Amino acid sequence: MGTGAIVDAGENGVNKKTRYFYLHLVHGILLVMLLITGAFLYVPSLRTFLGEIRWEFRYAHSLIGIGYFLFLCAALPDVVRYARNHKAWQKTFHFCLQISLGIGWTISGIYLWVNATSYLSVRQFFLQIHDMLSVFVIPWILGHIGLWYWRRCKSIRPQKKRVPEEGERDRGIQLSRRDVLRLFGGVFLAVVAGGLFRWYQPLSERFASTLASVKRKGYFRIYSVRSDNPVFNRATWQLTVDGLVERPSSFSYEELLSMRAHTFISDFHCVTGWSVTDVKWKGVSVKEIIEQVKPKEGGTYVRMYSADQLYTETYELTQLLEENVILAYELEGKPLNENQGAPLRLFHPGMYGYKSIKWVHRIEIRKERGLGYWEEKEGYDLNGYLT
Ligand SMILES: Nc1nc2c(c(=O)[nH]1)N[C@H]1C(S)=C(S)[C@@H](COP(=O)(O)O)O[C@H]1N2
Ligand SMILES: [Mo]
After folding, report:
1. In this predicted model, what pLDDT tens digit does every residue of 116-156 receive, in sequence order?
2. Which atom of ligand 1 lies closest to the CA of 222?
């Protein structure tokens, strides 16, 4: 699997050499495809760019991943043979590292793929592992390519052929204590490097967004998991409040406007790092609506539905009774525009932006909580309190 295949083939010469070359090539191509599709799923700005084809993209990534795993399995006998015929500890190291990466990615990948959200912490753990291994492998690949290039340059220059030492051929895979230490060192580095990166990223984004808000107020970057906005018809639009309540109700837009308005100023923070400071909010207090419908015994959770038919969020009922939690219809003194969730969006001043569901048209009081859109897709924290 090492680049050495091209430079120093085994005894059987050309056939084996080309075979290793192609195995190596396919491996590289699959890995790069996985990294590119993975980057689109991992980097928030790229993810938003994908819009609705995000899930097809994710599916493609999973399929390539499975292909990659099958390839690793199929190539294993060749790799073992190859490693056995070469002395260098680097090859053993490469080999072990590659196998652990393959296994780590596959196990965590399969878990993420089947999207088992019932054990949220397990899912978050696997997502972390998957990300860390992937982030770690980038400098590794760069180093790998660099080494290949360097060796190629070296091999172009005329050289005296090295005479193999006695007994060098048939040492098999021997792991010395040093190799084992190196292997674990590598895995440890992978985790630390990945961890540092994840730790650094939100910190730097927060720093950047703080800087930005010192300079100016910031602006809303319109986020929507769909590319088309729901249509708001003022005459027919209704907010439905149902579920475990004594008085299921619906409210027209005019009815909401006629209720006691609640106005205040509060910052808005998206979990990806951007913020808007001193936003003027106006709407009706959620507490007031809840009091009107009278939740029944056992109705301890709330699910809100967006008219986009895709986005949902869930809350503990008591979280919505906190101060300044509103269903907002005005932002900065103007009715919400179509992109901002017209005519209604939730705003909780203590929570991240993803809890501020836009185009809300149904509020359901429930016995069980369940997951919202991002909680299910990406393992976001259920409560979303600002940290
Ligand atoms: N229906 C719906 N509501 C949503 C979202 C969405 O994609 N769909 N994105 C959420 C996220 S992650 C954020 S940060 C805010 C962004 O609000 P804005 O689009 O008004 O800037 O909306 C939240 N509410
Ligand atoms: Mo967000």
Report:
1. 545 556 766 787 788 888 888 888 888 878 877 887 777 76
2. 19
Final residue of a domain: which of 198, 230, 258? 198
340 Cβ below 6 A of ligand 1: yes
Can you give the residue range of the structural domain that contains 48? 2-156+174-198
Task: Count the domains in the chain.
Answer: 2
Q: What Å distances lie between residue 221 and 104, 192, 226, 269, CA to CA?
A: 35, 32, 14, 11
Residue 259, phi then psi, degrees to nearest 5: -75, 165
Is there a domain that residue 162 lies in? no
- Given the CA of residue 307, which atom of ligand 1 is nearest to it? 1
Specify whether the CB–CB gap between 239 and 343 falls below 8 A: no
Model-level pTM?
Answer: 0.56
Q: Strand, helix or coil at 67?
A: helix
CATH number of the domain within which 250 lies: 3.90.420.10
Same domain? 243 vs 132: no
Indicate if 8 and 130 belong to the same structural domain.
yes
- Alpha carbon of 224 to ligand 2 centroid (Å): 9
Q: For 196-252, write each residue's pLDDT tens digit.
A: 666 666 666 666 666 555 455 777 877 888 878 899 999 999 999 999 999 999 999
